[in-house]
Write a structure and sequence with these properties.
Layout: E1 4-6, H1 16-22, E2 36-41, H2 42-53, E3 57-59, E4 68-73, H3 79-92, E5 95-100, E6 103-108, E7 128-134, H4 140-147, E8 156-160, E9 165-171, H5 172-185, E10 194-197, H6 203-213, E11 223-227, E12 232-236, H7 239-252, E13 262-266, H8 272-282, E14 294-298, E15 303-307, H9 310-323, E16 329-340, E17 343-354, E18 359-363, H10 372-381, H11 384-394, E19 400-405, E20 411-421, E21 425-429, E22 432-436, E23 441-460, E24 469-491, E25 496-508, E26 520-532, E27 537-553, E28 568-588, H12 591-615, H13 631-648
């Protein structure tokens, strides 16, 4: 027995019209095939399938290449779906496709049961027919077990999931009947959705109960959704099922037997006292007739006690959930420095007269930094060490020196010095504070000084004195003198921080003639700025100009006319300072960032402590960019000095 092989033919061998007919009108642009074979020879269909799918076929002569077959559909198919429909048609005709190497052999199916009435004399409705039926609204694979019992013995039914189509191969009459049944099943779910408003229960809780009851049941066409905004339950599905759910919801929507309309809500971050006032004001006008809304705070447990109708209760709880959140913190580091241009002019006369055995007389005013006694003693010692002491005493600040040695051994020396010093900058403090977003923080470093606030006199009867005695009274108040810094940070979008700054720096002025009480010098700065997270901003312009005079003299001799200038020294210091304020905010959004900032400061202090212990002295001041890291060290020194001053008092 000889088989005739059928191989894939190149498209160029076929005329355009013939290719469209045999390939089932395959579209080159969309790569799809439309089935339209009515009473067509099997060989022509096989050739079209080979052309569309790229497969090679061999037809067994027992099959009959001139057998008439029918294969048609209403929608285009992909080549793979086209091939599945072709196999279904072969199965309906008792033909099997057996892969054999590079070809597929089409042979009779010996086990195929012959369908009754399928012979040549059968009517059109009894002819074998293969139908590719697209399914729109349901899953085609799920229809296979439903349709299979309705098919004739030996018929074929299969689904193609990628295209969601159903392939039927059976008698024409049975295919039509099954197609009508599938059409009844493949319908849209147009069931209405019911909205059930609730009065007492929570919609979310009701839906949770309904879903728990539906576990394991067939809920493909049932739907229950909670609408928190209106506190309603949305029900969908079949009418009978919706009626059952509506009755169940009505039985569950009853007032709570425990606690009535009162609820206690514990807060994690917000302040209960402050939040209760805001909520009472916000919901005061929402109480209906015969209802009341009361929100109070329990400060001991930081909890809210809410008494309100269920609907209002849900709104209040929703607002509390949005307000009771963890707020970011801001680490604000401040460097306060005085940048000064001081000119300290000092002029004085130092002299001494003595012989090697005794000192006859001397004046020594070391305000200039040069000690005459050290200078003379070192120069007359005759040793290298003494001369080194003299050179150090003279120093770079000595402006003019005169010395004379007499023949009889009497020595006289005079020293006139003019010292001019230029100072650079002075760090007044590096305060640092951590505060919540939009929360005011205050730093106060200084002293509390008493001031006279008023005085008056009164007359009256005094048991220990004569009647009518005048008794004076003086009232005293205390004010803070030093540095006061108030900062309110507000975190904006984009990690920028808005800082409201109020800084006051005050100090006691020298005694002023005619002043009733102490005089203070005050420099204030009030501003609002925006700084990026981790950025540094400088503020300045608080300039102060003051002159200080000093005088040192020998008692009696310094006041003598003409020669008194030889026994005294006077100095005048002019200080002009510009107060500079450097600010660096750092946002701490969580505990991890706060711990990291704390560890940085702690590690720095630890390194400084180790450096001092190894060197035996203090460490040098770092550069300006590292000045923020010395804040804690400077504050420790200031605290030590303040303690010593307190002990001396």
């Amino acid at each position: 027995m000889q088989m005739s092989p059928i191989r894939k033919k190149p498209v160029r061998r076929w005329p355009a019209a013939t290719v469209l007919m045999l390939a089932g009108a395959m579209s080159a642009q969309q790569d799809t095939v439309r089935l339209n074979y009515r009473n067509t020879d099997l060989q022509e269909v096989v050739e079209a399938v080979a052309e569309a799918t790229g497969r090679n076929f061999v037809i067994d002569p027992l099959v009959g290449a001139d057998r008439k077959v029918n294969l048609f559909g209403s929608q285009p198919l992909s080549p793979e779906a086209y091939y599945q429909a072709f196999l279904s048609m072969l199965s309906a005709h008792g033909i099997v496709a057996v892969p054999s190497g590079p070809v597929i052999r089409l042979s009779p199916d010996r086990t195929m049961r012959i369908l009754a009435g399928a012979g040549p004399e059968s009517s059109a409705n009894d002819e074998l027919r293969t139908l590719v039926l697209p399914v729109t609204n349901v899953d085609a694979q799920g229809l296979v077990p439903i349709v299979r019992p309705m098919m004739s013995p030996g018929a074929h039914v299969a689904a193609h999931p990628p295209t969601n189509v159903l392939i039927l191969s059976d008698r024409g009459s049975n295919v039509n009947k099954v197609a009508r049944v599938i059409g009844r099943i493949d319908q849209k779910n147009d069931q209405p959705v019911e909205v059930i408003p609730l009065e007492h229960a929570s919609a979310r809780d009701i839906v949770r109960v309904l879903n728990e009851m539906a576990v394991g049941a067939d809920t493909a066409f049932n739907l229950a959704v909670a609408d928190d905004r209106t506190n309603s339950v949305l029900l969908g599905g079949e009418q009978n099922r919706r009626l059952e759910l509506r009755a169940l919801v009505a039985r569950l929507d009853t007032p709570s037997l425990e606690g009535g309309n009162t609820r206690v809500r514990y807060l994690n971050y917000a302040d209960a006292a402050s939040l209760s006032e805001k909520l009472s004001t916000q919901f005061a006008d929402r109480a209906g007739e015969g209802e009341r809304i009361l929100v109070s705070a329990d400060e001991a447990t930081n909890a809210l006690i809410i008494d309100a109708p269920p609907t209002t209760m849900r709104h209040i709880v929703a607002v509390v959930d949005q307000l009771d959140i963890r707020r970011a913190q801001v680490l604000v580091e401040v460097l306060i420095a005085e940048v000064s241009a001081d000119r300290a002019n000092q002029l004085g006369v130092n002299w001494a007269a003595y012989d090697p055995q005794r000192v006859l007389g001397s004046t020594d005013f070391p305000a200039s930094g040069t000690s005459l006694r050290e200078l003379v003693a070192g120069s007359l010692s005759g040793t290298d060490q003494g001369r080194a002491v003299a050179a150090e005493a003279l120093g770079p600040g000595a402006g003019f020196a005169v010395g004379r040695v007499r023949d009889d051994g009497l020595s006289f020396a005079a020293l006139i010095s003019a010292v001019e010093n230029t100072a650079g900058s002075n760090i007044l403090g590096t305060p640092m504070v951590v505060t919540l977003d939009n929360q005011e923080a205050t730093i106060n470093v200084g002293q509390n000084v008493p001031f006279i606030t008023g005085s008056y006199a009164s007359s009256g009867i005094n048991p220990s004195s004569a009647d009518g005695q005048i008794r004076p009274f003086t009232t005293v108040g205390r004010n803070d003198i030093g540095l006061t810094l108030t900062i309110t940070p507000r975190i904006n979008q984009g990690d920028a921080v808005r800082l409201e700054i109020d800084q006051t720096l005050s100090e006691l002025a020298p005694s002023v003639a005619g002043a009733v009480d102490l005089v203070t010098n005050t420099r204030e700065l009030t501003t609002a700025v925006i700084v990026e997270d981790g950025g540094t901003l400088v503020l300045g312009g608080l300039i102060q100009d003051k002159i200080r005079e000093s005088r040192q003299s020998v008692p009696v001799l310094g006041n003598l006319p003409l020669i008194g200038a030889l026994f005294r020294a006077s100095g005048q210091t002019r200080e002009k300072t510009n107060l500079m304020l450097f600010i660096r905010p750092t946002i701490l959004r969580d505990s991890a960032q706060a711990d990291a900032a704390t560890n940085v400061k702690y590690d720095y202090l630890r390194r400084q402590q180790l450096a001092q212990s190894f060197s035996g002295g203090s460490t040098p001041m770092p550069e300006l960019e590292n000045a923020f890291n010395i804040g804690d060290e400077d504050e420790d020194k200031a605290g030590t000095k303040e303690a010593e001053s307190t002990d001396s008092d």
